[in-house]
Specification:
The chain is of the alpha+beta class. It contains 12 helices and 7 strands. A 4-stranded antiparallel sheet has the order 2-3-7-6, covered by helices on one side. A 3-stranded mixed sheet has the order 1-4-5, covered by helices on one side. The chain starts with a helix and ends in a 10-residue tail after the last helix. The model has no long low-confidence stretch (mean pLDDT 93).
Length: 369
């Protein structure tokens, strides 16, 4: 993709998502939007040109999360998951797997989902899903919770335990042994499927259909996953909510009394300040350095938590007419924001990690034993 790629994604997010949602039910799979993103090259930005992608910089890739977060969080989740899997195939796949998968993934012809999470488990070594061998055949058993795009993905990378290793199995959901459960009830994050997937005796080629080959261990990469994309999505949502609130308030401001106008200006100033801080934290992550003011896990906790305050204050500022406005922007962001606290890595898990890190290091930087 040429250098105008980020601008084209931004134009799509700001000018095409809203009209689409105004004309289509929010709980339907947005196939037309997914196709447009494929045409724009959004599915291949983490894939280098030699494998059919565009090889965007880290900051350019982050802008996709920001812009799609401005537009519609479920779409940001679908694309974000796919881009993570592009990176995993690039970093861990065998040469044959890279040749087979990366080009169609980059073109958006083969869109991946990832089946990783299991309820109540926080470490890859605890996973109950098992990949075993039965002679020349691999067999997958287990159940996965909260799989984004479970119903419409072309392929699923299922994360399982095999002996002492954590492996990724390329799954074709159309083959026997795969059952996608009903949609999980939720107040927001609609449109893109969220469901359980059960594997019951799913058979696969243990050499060709295991990421990196049979026994290739993904435990450390899974533990070291980056949460910057969720910071970008929170920043995008906050900016969209601020823009919507300012437009709504401005239209009726002249009809208010001077006293009320003064109070409204104060509330808008508070809202704009919250969003400015949130945006600053996100932008500081785009060029990581040893002197970064905040690590990505702390930034994810801060920004996704701050977003809850932003959407709540915007809803109070705009009232029922703003929340239920015909374009649905504020209501949609309000409903979707809560999920950012618990997806990716739940904020409570990140806070525990941050607390452990702080307690293990003295204030002078010495390790505490």
């Amino acid at each position: 993709m040429d250098s105008s790629g980020p601008d084209r994604i931004a134009h799509f997010a700001r000018h095409e998502i809203g009209p689409y949602l105004a004309a289509h039910p929010e709980d339907r799979y947005p196939r037309a939007l997914v196709q447009r993103l494929a045409e724009l090259g959004a599915f291949g930005v983490t894939v280098p040109p030699e494998h059919g992608g565009s090889g965007w910089s880290r900051s350019e890739v982050a802008c996709i999360g920001y812009e799609l977060g401005r537009g519609w969080q479920p779409l940001a989740g679908l694309v974000g998951t796919h881009l993570k899997l592009c990176r995993q195939v690039l970093e861990h796949g065998t040469p044959r797997q890279q040749q087979r998968w990366l080009a169609p993934m980059a073109r958006g012809e083969t869109v991946f989902a990832r089946a990783y999470h299991e309820q109540g488990l926080s470490h890859p070594a605890e996973l109950g899903t098992r990949a075993t061998r039965r002679g020349p055949v691999g067999v997958l058993h287990g159940r996965k919770s909260w799989v984004t795009n479970a119903r419409d993905a072309d392929r699923v990378l299922a994360i399982a335990r095999s002996g002492d290793a954590t492996v990724g199995v390329f799954v074709d959901p159309a083959r026997p042994g795969v059952t996608v459960g009903p949609e999980l009830p939720r107040p927001g994050m609609l449109g893109v499927s969220l469901a359980e997937i059960t594997f019951e005796g799913y058979e696969f080629d243990p050499e060709e259909e295991v990421l990196g080959g049979w026994g290739h261990d993904l435990t450390e990469p899974l533990l070291a996953h980056d949460v910057t994309s969720y910071v970008a999505r929170a920043a995008g949502s906050a900016d969209a909510v601020l823009d919507q609130a300012v437009r709504f308030v401005r239209e009726g401001l002249d009809r208010r009394t001077p006293e009320v106008r003064g109070a409204i200006r104060l509330r808008v100033g508070e809202l704009a300040t919250r969003v400015a801080v949130l945006r600053t934290v996100w932008q500081a992550l785009l060029t990581p350095s040893p002197d970064a003011p905040m690590p990505s896990d702390a930034a994810k906790v801060f920004c996704t938590t701050a977003l809850q305050d932003v959407v709540r204050e915007a809803a109070l500022l705009c009232g029922g007419a703003g929340y239920a406005a015909p374009d649905g922007t504020l209501g949609r962001h309000y409903r979707d924001a809560l999920a950012l606290l618990i997806i990716g890595a739940p904020n409570d898990a990140l806070l525990s990690r941050i607390g452990e890190r702080e307690l293990s290091v003295a204030r002078d930087g010495r390790q505490v034993y």
